[in-house]
Structures are given as structure tokens and as C-alpha cells.
Amino acid sequence: MIANDLQRSCYPLIAIYPRWQIDAGQWVSYLPLLAVIVILSVFWFKRELWSRACFFAFAYFMAALLPILGLVDNFIFQFSFVFDHFQYLASIGPLALAGAGLARFSDMVIPKKPWLQSGLCAGLLLFLGMASWERTWVYQSQETLWTDTLAKNPNCWVGQYNLGSILLQKGQVDKALEHFQNAVEINPNYLEAHSNLGLALLQKGQMDEAVAHFKKASEIAPNSLSTHYNLGVALFRNGKLDEAVAQYRKALEINPNSLETHYNLGLTLFKNRQLDEAIAQFLEVLRLKPDFSPAQDYLARAQALVRRRDGLE
């Protein structure tokens, strides 16, 4: 209850704000740029009368924000166009102007009463400090941060994924599944969400659904070791050994020194009675890690079966 009250009091501050679509063909898309030009022009032409400080504060603010104003592409724009923390340094200019204005205002309203002026500033700082303190509850943990974000911006696909990952680590698989599914519905090409959704479905024993999401992940990132490896695991558990072998081989084309992939490929080949190839994979595992006991055990079992097959025992 307290957390909900604090959440409402801090609205609309969000870790990731809703992302809107920019259409270069619409004239309204150019209004922010026009507004900046008009404001700077007014401050510049009136600088000798009253706006010198305003021009400097506004120009400083814009210059400090230049790297993330959208003039150059930035990976963060795939999530949102607004991030509060990027304006911390830029806010020094407007805050200095506001502080000077507050001092001048207090001299005009309550002149020659420094104790009252100090009390006014202290009251303002106390109010701002309380507002900041109320906001800190959101940052108690990753779970509270992303819960707060999704309460205000449910279409935040990275928030859905992050909260789902946290819940999956805590063993709350059903809740994690819900958030991963939301993430891929919002962003169908979200690689990590498809991968983690597949892992959660594996834990639930829903093999066909897990395979479908791992296949989607491998389509999105065909050169990713983990996508082919995870798909191989899902196919193996689903009893599709030949398909699992194919995925493990693709994974090894990407990283020939992946110990886990060599071992799982060897295990799959062993289960599929391809003993000679399985032995080769277990030997490769032991080359990479000589004390890997599971590979030692399966190597001995495969060699024993080969000797029996060849009539050497």
C-alpha cells in the first residue's frame, strides 16, 4: 500500500518512457526543432536587455544534450527517446539560472531579511529532498525498478524481459513466462526474450513451444552460438536426435572450442547409436578439459560398446 502511494506521488518518472514513432513526412515532427530555434533567437536578440543569462543557460543545456538529441543514431533510441539521467549534467545551466532568479526574487519580495530568505531556500530544498527520497524506493532492487516501469509503461518490452528474467531466476516460472510472452508480442524480433522464453518453456516441459521459440531465435541471430546450442538442447529433449545433431554442428561452426557443445553433441550421438562419432566428440571435450568426468564416463561406455560391436570382447 505504501509502495503504491509512493509510486503515484512520483508519477510520471519512469526508468524507460513510452517510445513514440517519428514520421519525417509530418510537419509536426519539426515543431521541437522550430521551438528551439525560436527560443534561442529571442534570447539572442534580447540579450542586451534581459536575456543574456537565459541565452547562456538554454544554450548550455542544448549543447550538453547534443550527443543524445537524435542528430546521431544511438542504440538507446530503440528503447525510448527520453532518459532522465542524461540531463543531469545539462541541468546545471538552468538550475544555476533558477538559483540566481530565486535569490533576486527573494531580495525583491522580502528584502533585508536574510533569515527569511534562507528559510525559503531551505524549505524548497526540503521539498525537493523529500520528493527524491520518495523516489528511492523504486531502486531498492531490479524487481522493484522494472515493476514500477511496467506499471506506468506496460509496452516497455525490455522491462517485460528484465522482470521476466528476474522472476525466472527466483523460480517463478509461470510469472516469468507471462512477461517473456509480453516482450515477444511487443517486439517479435527480440532475440533474448525468445531465448529466455524457450528456457522457461523447457523448465515447464513444453518442448514443442520451446523448440518454436529457439527456432525463431536462430532465425533472428543465425550466427549466434547460444541460439543453435539452445535449439539443440530442446530438440534433444524432444527426442529429435538427428535435428539436435544438426544444430550442435552449426554451433560448432561458430565456435569450434565450445566444450558444452562438443559434450552435448557427443551425448546426442551416443544416444543415437553413432558411437564412433560420439567417441570423437568426447575426445575433443577431454582435449579441452582433461578432467571433465562426465565425458570420461561416456567415452569409456562408448568405447566398450564399440569393442562389443566389433567382437573384441
Written overview of the protein:
The chain has 313 residues and is mainly alpha-helical. It folds into three domains: 2-136, no CATH class; 154-244, Alpha Horseshoe (Serine Threonine Protein Phosphatase 5, Tetratricopeptide repeat); 256-313, Tetratricopeptide repeat domain (Serine Threonine Protein Phosphatase 5, Tetratricopeptide repeat, Alpha Horseshoe), CATH 1.25.40.10. The chain has helices at 2-10, 31-45, 47-64, 92-109, 114-135, 142-152, 157-169, 173-186, 191-204, 207-220, 225-237, 241-254, 259-271, 275-288, 293-309. Helix 2 (31-45) runs antiparallel to helix 3 (47-64). It is elongated and about 110 Å long.
Task: Give the helix/strand layout.
Elements: H1 2-10, H2 31-45, H3 47-64, H4 92-109, H5 114-135, H6 142-152, H7 157-169, H8 173-186, H9 191-204, H10 207-220, H11 225-237, H12 241-254, H13 259-271, H14 275-288, H15 293-309
Helix pairs in contact: 2-3, 3-4, 6-7, 7-8, 8-9, 9-10, 10-11, 11-12, 12-13, 13-14, 14-15
